[in-house]
C-alpha cells in the first residue's frame, strides 16, 4: 500500500510539472518591482541547521545589497514556522521579509508557483545543498528541481544554488534532473559531485558552496571568545576547535583520548546544530572526559557568529560540513569525520590532502594521524580561498 501511495504521489507531482511547463509561456509577467522568493531545501523548519542558515543568509545578504528596498518572501511548509522559531523571527527582522506557507501537501509545485506569481517575483532562489540527489527524500528533490525549472521558464532570474551529488543518487532524481530547461544554470558545489553530475548533464558548472559568501558577524559575545582564544595563542597553545555530530555516532572516548594526548593544546568544543540538544549532547560527553585545557561553548550562536568565531582557531576538527566551510572561509585549516562523500570534494577545492579525513568509527592511530595532519597544516592558501570565493559568488549572480 505504501508503494502504491508513493507511486500516486509521484504521478501527481510529475503531471503538475508537465502542465506548468506547458503553461509557463502564458503565465509570464513584466514590469514588476524587485522581489525575491527564496525556496529553502527544508521548508518545514526553514532554518533547520546552521548550514541551512548560512546558505539562506548568504543569498539574502547579496539580495539586500542589490535591492535595499526589494521585497522578500520565503516559502515554508509549516504555517507556524515563523512564530515557533526564534531563528525564523531573527531572519525576518534582519531582512524585513515575509513567510509564505506555500509548500502544502498534494499540490506543492502549483502552490509554490502560485505564491511566486502572487508576489510578482523577479528572482527565485532554490537552495539545493545536499537535498537534490534524493538521499533524504526523492520527492522533495523532485519538487525543488521542478520549482527551479518552472521559475526559469517563467522568465524569472532563477538560481538553483550549488548542490552536492552522491555516488548513488535516487533514480527518480536522475529523471528529474534530465527534465530541466537548458536555460537553467546547473550549479554543483564541489569537484567530486561535479564529476558525478556531468555524467547526467554535461553542461553542469562547478561552483563552491553558497555559504562561502556569508559575511561573518563579530558581536560582543564573539569578541569575548576570540579574546580568550588570543590568550591561548599568546601562551603558545594550538587553539583547536572540535565539533561532533550525534548522527554520525562518533566514538567520544577515543576522540577524548587522542585530544588528551596532545601537548600545548586548548580545545574549544563548538556546536553547529542546536535542534533537540543537537551537537551539545555529544560535546557535553567529551567535555567531561577532557583533561587538556578546554571550553564548551553553550550559547546559541548564529551561522554568521560561528563563522566569525572560527577566525580565532588554529585549526578545526569537525563533523559538520558547514562549520568546516566557515573555518575554511576564514582561512583556517580543517580535518573532518567524513560522510556522504561531502568533505573530499570540499577539500579538493583547496587542493588539500584527504589524509585529514577519517571515518566516524575511526580509533587510535587513525585519529591521531588526522589530528597530526591538521596541526601541521598551515593556514589556507589565500589564492585558493580567493578562487573558491569567486566560485561561490556564481550562486548569487543573476
Could you explain the architecture of this structure?
Helix 7 (171-178) links the parallel strand 5 and strand 6. The protein has helices at residues 2-23, 50-66, 81-84, 86-95, 108-118, 138-153, 171-178, 191-197, 220-234, 252-260, 279-287, 303-310, 321-329, 342-349, 364-376, 382-393, and strands spanning 35-39, 71-76, 98-101, 123-126, 157-163, 186-188, 205-206, 238-242, 265-269, 294-296, 315-318, 334-337, 357-358. The strands form 2 sheets. The protein has a 7-stranded parallel β-sheet with strand order 3-2-1-4-5-6-7, with helices on both faces. With 398 residues, the chain is an alpha/beta fold. The chain contains 16 helices and 13 strands.
> Secondary-structure element sequence?
HEHEHHEHEHEHEHEHEHEHEHEHEHEHH
Q: What structural class is derived from the secondary structure elements?
A: alpha/beta
The major pleated sheet works out as: 7 strands, parallel
Query: Total helix count?
Result: 16
Helix content: 40-55%
End-to-end gap: 44 Å
- Give the strand line-up of the largest sheet: 3-2-1-4-5-6-7
Based on Cα principal axes, name the global outline. Answer: globular
Strand content: 5-15%
Q: How many β-strands, per DSSP?
A: 13
Quaternary structure state of the chains depicted: single chain
Mean pLDDT: 93
- Unreliable stretches (pLDDT < 50, length at least 5) are none
- Rg is 21 Å
List descriptors:
single chain, 13 strands, 398 residues, 7-stranded parallel sheet, 45% helix, alpha/beta
In short:
The protein contains 16 helices and 13 strands. The chain is α/β, with parallel strands linked by helices and 398 residues long.
Amino acid at each position: 500500500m505504501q508503494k502504491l501511495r508513493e507511486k500516486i504521489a509521484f504521478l501527481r507531482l510529475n503531471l503538475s510539472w508537465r502542465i506548468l511547463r506547458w503553461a509557463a509561456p502564458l503565465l509570464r509577467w513584466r514590469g514588476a518591482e524587485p522581489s525575491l522568493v527564496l525556496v529553502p531545501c527544508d521548508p518545514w523548519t526553514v532554518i533547520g541547521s546552521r548550514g541551512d542558515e548560512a546558505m539562506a543568509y548568504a543569498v539574502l545578504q547579496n539580495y539586500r545589497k542589490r535591492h535595499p528596498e526589494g521585497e522578500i518572501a520565503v516559502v515554508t511548509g509549516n504555517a507556524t514556522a515563523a512564530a515557533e522559531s526564534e531563528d525564523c523571527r531573527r531572519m525576518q527582522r534582519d531582512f524585513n521579509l515575509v513567510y509564505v506557507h506555500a509548500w502544502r501537501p498534494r499540490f506543492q509545485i502549483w502552490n509554490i508557483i502560485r505564491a511566486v506569481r502572487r508576489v510578482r517575483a523577479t528572482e527565485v532562489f532554490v537552495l539545493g545543498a545536499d537535498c537534490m540527489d534524493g538521499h533524504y527524500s526523492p520527492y522533495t528533490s523532485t519538487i525543488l528541481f521542478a520549482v527551479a525549472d518552472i521559475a526559469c521558464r517563467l522568465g524569472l532570474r532563477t538560481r538553483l544554488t550549488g548542490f552536492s551529488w552522491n555516488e548513488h543518487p535516487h533514480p527518480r532524481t536522475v529523471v528529474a534532473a534530465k527534465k530541466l530547461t537548458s536555460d537553467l544554470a546547473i550549479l554543483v558545489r564541489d569537484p567530486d559531485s561535479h564529476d558525478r553530475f556531468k555524467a547526467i548533464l554535461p553542461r553542469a558548472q562547478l561552483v563552491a558552496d553558497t555559504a562561502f559568501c556569508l559575511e561573518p558577524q563579530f558581536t560582543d559575545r564573539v569578541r569575548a571568545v576570540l579574546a580568550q582564544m588570543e590568550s591561548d595563542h599568546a601562551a603558545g597553545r594550538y587553539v583547536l576547535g572540535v565539533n561532533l555530530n550525534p548522527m554520525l555516532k562518533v566514538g567520544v572516548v577515543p576522540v577524548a583520548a587522542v585530544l588528551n594526548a596532545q601537548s600545548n593544546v586548548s580545545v574549544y568544543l563548538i556546536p553547529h546544530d542546536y535542534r533537540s540538544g543537537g551537537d551539545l549532547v555529544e560535546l557535553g560527553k567529551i567535555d567531561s572526559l577532557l583533561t587538556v585545557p578546554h571550553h564548551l561553548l553553550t550559547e546559541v550562536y548564529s551561522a554568521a557568529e560561528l563563522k566569525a568565531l572560527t577566525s580565532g582557531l588554529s585549526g578545526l576538527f569537525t563533523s559538520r560540513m558547514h562549520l568546516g566551510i566557515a573555518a575554511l572561509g576564514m582561512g583556517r585549516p580543517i580535518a573532518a569525520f567524513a560522510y556522504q562523500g561531502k568533505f573530499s570534494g570540499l577539500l579538493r577545492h583547496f587542493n588539500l590532502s584527504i589524509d585529514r579525513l577519517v571515518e566516524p568509527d575511526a580509533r587510535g592511530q587513525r585519529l591521531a594521524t588526522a589530528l597530526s595532519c591538521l596541526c601541521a597544516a598551515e593556514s589556507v592558501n589565500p589564492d585558493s580561498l580567493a578562487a573558491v570565493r569567486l566560485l561561490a559568488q556564481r550562486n548569487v549572480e543573476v
